[in-house]
Write a structure and sequence with these properties.
membrane; 285 residues; 434 Repressor (Amino-terminal Domain); four-stranded antiparallel sheet; transmembrane; Bact_Cytoskel_RodZ; six-stranded mixed sheet; DNA binding
Length: 285
Amino acid sequence: MKKMSIGEYLQRARLAKDLKVEEVSVELNIPMQYITVMEHNQFQFLTREKADAYLKAYTEFLDLDSEPLLEGYGDPDFRLEVEEKKKEEPLPEPEEEQTSKVVEPFTKWSRSDRFEYLKNPKRRLPLVIMSLLSLLVLGLIGSAVYLQVSDEMKKASLPSSSLRQEKGQAQADSSAASDSKLSSTTKGSNISVTLADKNDQVTVEISQDSDQENLVCVTNSNLDKKGVTLDGNTKDTKATLDSKADKSVITLTSIDNVTVKINDQTLDLSSLAKDNTSYITLTIK
């Protein structure tokens, strides 16, 4: 027996029926972000009315018993005992008989043998092609070396004022790059963000241009417990991280027309799917 959360149980049942979240959303008329919230076991983001209605409809659609799920979803530590399917062991493949290879003895060619071999035009063709390819490679290498040397000679002949101008531009570019204190990497529906040069206070500003409901939560902040719902009436929110916090997870059920700023620096969300729940893991150094 294996213990799993309600969200894992729902996701496993959906995948067993080879269903996509989009198909379930269309069939049950439930927004995709709420299905994703249930499969991530984040029922605290739903009102009790929505949680009861959506969970009951989803379990009945998957041919599951809804009663224990409806009773236990309010407890984040609630687990179901599910019987694991035994994996069928693959049958051993018959061993192939090893066939002995006969190696012909090496015979040293004489000079006359080599000339006799090359008399055939078909045998000379590969040698000609290899020679041409070698010449082509040597030509490309020579061209690259020539261009590099020419570029270095041009730089050496530039006036001192031009060199000073280029140096000043390089320093400006380096300064602009150092001003950016955010670095991020994206994997699936998750973004890992590192904030360097921690200030006394770290703020996260979230705003959206649409009227759709968007559940937002920021751990280790004033939006840690219940979060906030952005909609047509509430377009933006601001979270202030605890002064001792060195990590926070920002949860967004949708990033469609959403802007996230960390200490007034805008985070690039273009690589994330717009209709799926996204997670931003913020590490503060």
